[in-house]
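Lay summary. Proteins are chains of building blocks that fold into shapes, and those shapes determine what they do. In this project we predict the shape from the chain. Here is one chain we studied, written as its sequence of building blocks.
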Amino acid sequence: MAAGQGAFSLREVLAAFQTCVTERREVLLVPYLSGWRGLIRFLHSLGAIFSFVSKDAVAKVQIMENYCRGEQREKYMSLQSMVEYELANGLVDIQKRSGRPDSGCRTVLRLHRALRWLQLFLEGLRTGREDSRTSVICTDSYNASLATYHPWVVRKAATVAFCTLPSRNAFLEIMNVGTTEEAVTMLGEALPYICDVYGITQELFARHKLLDLP
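And here is the predicted shape, written in a compact code that computers can read:
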């Protein structure tokens, strides 16, 4: 299935991120990308508001799927094996962009930054009150994550678009897991797995000085 197609299901995202991390604390790329395909469907279900994120995420997921199916696919089994392989073979542009195709490290870094925003936003929906303003939750989450990497014009357009977001209960209904209470419960189950994947990735990229790739 192409990234972004089909209806969103929080249960699908939970299942994918549950299977991401191995006993050795490695992040497997196939379930990671499966989880991202589910998150992209969530963004698409909200219409054009999040297209500035979803379009880029679709492109990045497709790049990584190509790596995972390519000639060196055994090197792209996990984030750890990918980082080791790409750094050892000089495939990562550390200081400035070259004319080469985007590395897996650079591509995952962009997904990693967007995952932080979605993690904060979904946590805000989970812990918010019924009358909480989703525009405020979303803006606060964006300012604490993705906004750092976007130019002013994108930040301005995003915060204006967030003002048109539906109510918290409407968001919870989009999760397709039953009542709003059931959606909140499942968010509580899913978010620790997403947080775990984010934390492992953050530590791995920080250790190899990959958090500011051009």
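What the prediction tells us: The longest helix spans residues 180-207.
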